[in-house]
Amino acid sequence: MAQRLPRTHFNSSALVRVLTELVETDGSASKQSFAERLGQWLDIGDALALFSALDAGSQPAEVPSKSPAADIRAVRGPFTRVRAALVNSITGVAGAEGDKVRIELPVPAPNETVERAADFAPYHRYYLAHQREMAARIGPLRTEARTALGRRSANHARLAGLDAVLDKALSARERDLLATVPALLGRRFARLHDAHQARFAEAQAADDPSRWMQGGGWLAIFCADLRAVLLAELELRLQPVAGLLAALDNEVTGKQ
To answer: Minimal CB count within 10 Å: which of 4, 27, 95, 230?
Structure first.
Protein backbone atom coordinates (compact mmCIF):
# COMPACT_ATOMS: atom_id res chain seq x y z
CA MET A 1 0.00 0.00 0.00
CA ALA A 2 1.33 3.46 -0.86
CA GLN A 3 2.27 5.56 2.13
CA ARG A 4 0.17 8.69 2.52
CA LEU A 5 1.91 11.96 1.90
CA PRO A 6 2.09 14.45 4.77
CA ARG A 7 -0.25 17.42 4.69
CA THR A 8 1.13 20.87 3.98
CA HIS A 9 0.12 24.18 5.56
CA PHE A 10 0.05 27.21 3.29
CA ASN A 11 2.90 29.11 4.94
CA SER A 12 4.98 26.16 6.14
CA SER A 13 5.54 23.24 3.80
CA ALA A 14 6.18 19.76 5.16
CA LEU A 15 9.61 19.84 3.53
CA VAL A 16 10.61 22.98 5.45
CA ARG A 17 9.29 21.56 8.73
CA VAL A 18 11.07 18.22 8.30
CA LEU A 19 14.39 19.84 7.39
CA THR A 20 14.11 22.29 10.27
CA GLU A 21 13.64 19.43 12.72
CA LEU A 22 16.43 17.26 11.27
CA VAL A 23 19.24 19.69 10.54
CA GLU A 24 18.51 22.41 13.11
CA THR A 25 18.29 25.10 10.47
CA ASP A 26 16.30 28.29 10.70
CA GLY A 27 12.79 27.46 9.52
CA SER A 28 11.10 30.63 10.80
CA ALA A 29 8.45 32.12 8.57
CA SER A 30 9.41 35.07 6.41
CA LYS A 31 7.96 38.43 7.43
CA GLN A 32 7.54 39.37 3.78
CA SER A 33 4.20 38.84 2.08
CA PHE A 34 3.87 36.27 -0.69
CA ALA A 35 3.58 39.06 -3.27
CA GLU A 36 6.80 40.70 -2.01
CA ARG A 37 8.75 37.44 -2.19
CA LEU A 38 7.32 36.60 -5.60
CA GLY A 39 8.35 40.04 -6.88
CA GLN A 40 11.96 39.29 -5.95
CA TRP A 41 11.93 36.08 -7.97
CA LEU A 42 10.49 37.50 -11.22
CA ASP A 43 12.33 39.61 -13.79
CA ILE A 44 10.62 42.15 -16.05
CA GLY A 45 9.88 39.56 -18.74
CA ASP A 46 8.26 37.23 -16.19
CA ALA A 47 6.24 40.11 -14.75
CA LEU A 48 4.90 41.04 -18.20
CA ALA A 49 3.99 37.43 -18.94
CA LEU A 50 2.26 37.21 -15.57
CA PHE A 51 0.28 40.39 -16.30
CA SER A 52 -0.79 39.01 -19.68
CA ALA A 53 -1.95 35.76 -18.07
CA LEU A 54 -3.95 37.64 -15.44
CA ASP A 55 -5.49 39.90 -18.09
CA ALA A 56 -6.58 37.03 -20.33
CA GLY A 57 -9.98 36.60 -18.70
CA SER A 58 -11.71 38.84 -21.24
CA GLN A 59 -10.89 36.49 -24.10
CA PRO A 60 -13.73 34.21 -25.28
CA ALA A 61 -13.63 30.64 -24.02
CA GLU A 62 -13.14 27.72 -26.33
CA VAL A 63 -15.92 25.16 -26.59
CA PRO A 64 -14.91 22.26 -24.31
CA SER A 65 -14.19 19.10 -26.26
CA LYS A 66 -14.88 16.90 -23.24
CA SER A 67 -17.14 16.96 -20.22
CA PRO A 68 -15.52 18.17 -16.97
CA ALA A 69 -15.84 14.67 -15.53
CA ALA A 70 -14.00 13.19 -18.52
CA ASP A 71 -11.26 15.80 -18.24
CA ILE A 72 -10.71 15.14 -14.57
CA ARG A 73 -10.64 11.36 -15.09
CA ALA A 74 -8.02 11.82 -17.81
CA VAL A 75 -5.78 13.63 -15.32
CA ARG A 76 -6.63 12.03 -11.98
CA GLY A 77 -5.88 8.47 -13.11
CA PRO A 78 -2.30 9.21 -14.19
CA PHE A 79 -1.82 11.50 -11.17
CA THR A 80 -2.82 8.74 -8.76
CA ARG A 81 -0.64 6.15 -10.49
CA VAL A 82 2.42 8.40 -10.70
CA ARG A 83 2.11 9.49 -7.08
CA ALA A 84 1.75 5.91 -5.90
CA ALA A 85 4.72 4.79 -8.00
CA LEU A 86 6.93 7.58 -6.65
CA VAL A 87 5.91 6.92 -3.04
CA ASN A 88 6.61 3.21 -3.51
CA SER A 89 9.99 4.00 -5.06
CA ILE A 90 10.93 6.17 -2.08
CA THR A 91 9.72 3.74 0.56
CA GLY A 92 11.24 0.73 -1.20
CA VAL A 93 7.92 -1.01 -1.82
CA ALA A 94 7.38 -2.97 -5.04
CA GLY A 95 4.51 -1.78 -7.21
CA ALA A 96 1.11 -3.41 -7.46
CA GLU A 97 2.26 -5.38 -10.51
CA GLY A 98 5.42 -6.59 -8.80
CA ASP A 99 7.76 -4.21 -10.58
CA LYS A 100 11.13 -3.85 -8.89
CA VAL A 101 12.29 -0.72 -7.11
CA ARG A 102 14.53 1.02 -9.64
CA ILE A 103 16.47 3.21 -7.18
CA GLU A 104 17.98 1.00 -4.53
CA LEU A 105 18.77 2.44 -1.10
CA PRO A 106 22.51 2.09 -0.38
CA VAL A 107 23.10 -0.42 2.42
CA PRO A 108 26.55 -1.44 3.76
CA ALA A 109 27.58 -4.94 2.76
CA PRO A 110 28.53 -7.39 5.55
CA ASN A 111 32.22 -7.12 4.61
CA GLU A 112 32.20 -3.33 4.04
CA THR A 113 34.93 -1.27 5.67
CA VAL A 114 33.87 1.27 8.29
CA GLU A 115 35.37 4.15 6.29
CA ARG A 116 33.59 3.27 3.06
CA ALA A 117 30.28 2.50 4.74
CA ALA A 118 30.35 5.89 6.47
CA ASP A 119 30.56 7.77 3.15
CA PHE A 120 27.59 10.06 2.41
CA ALA A 121 28.24 10.11 -1.37
CA PRO A 122 26.03 7.07 -2.22
CA TYR A 123 23.10 8.63 -0.34
CA HIS A 124 23.69 11.93 -2.12
CA ARG A 125 23.48 10.12 -5.48
CA TYR A 126 20.39 8.23 -4.28
CA TYR A 127 18.62 11.48 -3.42
CA LEU A 128 19.55 13.11 -6.72
CA ALA A 129 18.25 10.08 -8.62
CA HIS A 130 14.88 10.44 -6.90
CA GLN A 131 14.80 14.15 -7.66
CA ARG A 132 15.39 13.43 -11.35
CA GLU A 133 12.65 10.80 -11.36
CA MET A 134 10.16 13.14 -9.67
CA ALA A 135 10.90 15.94 -12.12
CA ALA A 136 10.61 13.64 -15.14
CA ARG A 137 7.29 12.13 -14.09
CA ILE A 138 5.50 15.11 -12.52
CA GLY A 139 6.27 17.64 -15.28
CA PRO A 140 4.08 15.93 -17.91
CA LEU A 141 1.27 15.55 -15.36
CA ARG A 142 1.26 19.29 -14.75
CA THR A 143 1.19 20.01 -18.48
CA GLU A 144 -1.73 17.64 -19.03
CA ALA A 145 -3.64 19.13 -16.08
CA ARG A 146 -3.18 22.62 -17.54
CA THR A 147 -4.39 21.44 -20.95
CA ALA A 148 -7.51 19.88 -19.43
CA LEU A 149 -8.24 22.97 -17.34
CA GLY A 150 -7.72 25.30 -20.29
CA ARG A 151 -10.54 23.56 -22.18
CA ARG A 152 -13.19 24.40 -19.61
CA SER A 153 -13.90 28.15 -19.60
CA ALA A 154 -12.26 31.56 -19.92
CA ASN A 155 -11.59 31.68 -16.18
CA HIS A 156 -10.17 28.17 -16.17
CA ALA A 157 -8.03 28.98 -19.19
CA ARG A 158 -6.70 32.04 -17.39
CA LEU A 159 -5.78 29.88 -14.38
CA ALA A 160 -4.03 27.39 -16.67
CA GLY A 161 -2.14 30.21 -18.36
CA LEU A 162 -1.12 31.64 -14.99
CA ASP A 163 0.21 28.26 -13.90
CA ALA A 164 2.20 27.96 -17.14
CA VAL A 165 3.82 31.36 -16.57
CA LEU A 166 4.67 30.61 -12.94
CA ASP A 167 6.01 27.18 -13.86
CA LYS A 168 8.38 28.70 -16.41
CA ALA A 169 9.38 31.67 -14.24
CA LEU A 170 9.97 29.79 -11.00
CA SER A 171 11.28 26.43 -12.20
CA ALA A 172 14.94 27.51 -12.12
CA ARG A 173 14.64 28.93 -8.61
CA GLU A 174 12.80 25.81 -7.42
CA ARG A 175 15.52 23.62 -8.94
CA ASP A 176 18.26 25.64 -7.24
CA LEU A 177 16.54 25.54 -3.86
CA LEU A 178 15.80 21.81 -3.99
CA ALA A 179 19.40 21.17 -5.02
CA THR A 180 20.45 22.33 -1.54
CA VAL A 181 18.40 19.64 0.23
CA PRO A 182 20.96 16.79 -0.18
CA ALA A 183 23.65 19.01 1.38
CA LEU A 184 21.42 19.61 4.39
CA LEU A 185 20.92 15.86 4.70
CA GLY A 186 24.68 15.47 4.55
CA ARG A 187 24.90 17.53 7.73
CA ARG A 188 22.37 15.22 9.40
CA PHE A 189 24.36 12.17 8.23
CA ALA A 190 27.61 13.60 9.64
CA ARG A 191 26.05 14.48 12.99
CA LEU A 192 24.56 11.00 13.45
CA HIS A 193 27.83 9.37 12.44
CA ASP A 194 29.87 11.58 14.79
CA ALA A 195 27.59 10.68 17.69
CA HIS A 196 27.95 7.01 16.81
CA GLN A 197 31.75 7.30 16.64
CA ALA A 198 31.84 8.90 20.07
CA ARG A 199 30.05 5.91 21.53
CA PHE A 200 32.53 3.52 19.89
CA ALA A 201 35.66 5.56 20.56
CA GLU A 202 37.05 2.91 22.90
CA ALA A 203 35.74 -0.15 21.04
CA GLN A 204 36.27 0.35 17.31
CA ALA A 205 36.60 -3.38 16.73
CA ALA A 206 32.95 -3.80 17.67
CA ASP A 207 31.82 -1.17 15.16
CA ASP A 208 30.33 -3.42 12.47
CA PRO A 209 28.83 -1.51 9.50
CA SER A 210 26.42 -4.36 8.77
CA ARG A 211 24.76 -3.68 12.12
CA TRP A 212 24.23 0.03 11.52
CA MET A 213 20.91 -0.71 9.82
CA GLN A 214 19.71 -3.01 12.62
CA GLY A 215 18.01 -2.34 15.92
CA GLY A 216 17.66 1.41 15.52
CA GLY A 217 21.27 1.90 14.44
CA TRP A 218 22.38 5.37 13.41
CA LEU A 219 22.27 4.57 9.69
CA ALA A 220 18.76 3.13 9.99
CA ILE A 221 17.70 6.38 11.66
CA PHE A 222 19.29 8.40 8.87
CA CYS A 223 17.64 6.32 6.13
CA ALA A 224 14.23 6.86 7.75
CA ASP A 225 14.95 10.60 7.84
CA LEU A 226 16.09 10.50 4.22
CA ARG A 227 12.84 8.92 3.11
CA ALA A 228 10.78 11.37 5.18
CA VAL A 229 12.47 14.29 3.41
CA LEU A 230 11.93 12.70 -0.01
CA LEU A 231 8.22 12.19 0.73
CA ALA A 232 7.93 15.81 1.84
CA GLU A 233 9.66 16.98 -1.35
CA LEU A 234 7.35 14.78 -3.42
CA GLU A 235 4.34 16.42 -1.79
CA LEU A 236 5.78 19.85 -2.58
CA ARG A 237 6.36 18.97 -6.23
CA LEU A 238 2.84 17.54 -6.59
CA GLN A 239 1.06 20.57 -5.14
CA PRO A 240 0.67 22.50 -8.44
CA VAL A 241 -0.90 19.47 -10.12
CA ALA A 242 -3.15 18.88 -7.12
CA GLY A 243 -4.26 22.52 -7.30
CA LEU A 244 -5.17 22.23 -10.98
CA LEU A 245 -7.08 19.04 -10.22
CA ALA A 246 -8.93 20.83 -7.43
CA ALA A 247 -10.01 23.51 -9.92
CA LEU A 248 -11.40 20.81 -12.21
CA ASP A 249 -13.08 19.16 -9.24
CA ASN A 250 -14.76 22.42 -8.30
CA GLU A 251 -16.30 22.71 -11.75
CA VAL A 252 -17.66 19.17 -11.56
CA THR A 253 -19.02 19.78 -8.05
CA GLY A 254 -20.55 23.09 -9.04
CA LYS A 255 -22.48 21.52 -11.95
CA GLN A 256 -23.91 18.63 -9.98
So the answer is: 4
The phi and psi torsions of 39 (rounded to 5 degrees) equal: -60, -30
Mean of the per-residue pLDDT values for the chain?
Answer: 78
According to DSSP, the residues that pair with 19 across neighbouring strands are none
CA atoms within 13 A of residue 26's CA, in its CB half-sphere: 3
Burial class for 216, CB neighbours closer than 10 Å (0-12, 13-18, 19+): exposed
DSSP states of the chain: -PPPPPP-BTTB-HHHHHHHHHH----PPPSS-HHHHHHHH--HHHHHHHHHHHGGGGSPPPPPSS-HHHHHHHHHHHHHHHHHHHHHHHHTPPPTT-PPPSSPPP---TT--HHHHT-SHHHHHHHHHHHHHHHHHHHHHHHHHHHHHHTT-HHHHHHHHHHHHHHHHHHHHHHHHHTTHHHHHHHHHHHHHHHHHHHTTT-GGG--GGGTTSTT-HHHHHHHHHHHHHHHHHHHHHHHHHHHHHHHHHHHHHT-
For residue 19, give the nearest of 236, 226, 240 by alpha carbon.
226
Q: Give the whole-angstrom CA distance, residue 59 versus residue 41.
A: 28
Between CA 101 and CA 86 the distance in angstroms is 10
pLDDT in tens, 37-82: 555 556 666 555 655 666 665 554 555 556 767 778 888 999 999 9
Q: Residue 222 in contact with residue 192, Cβ under 8 Å?
A: yes
In the chain, % of residues over pLDDT 90: 34
> Which residues, in sequence order, are bridge partners of residue 12?
9
Q: First CA to last CA across the chain, in angstroms?
A: 32
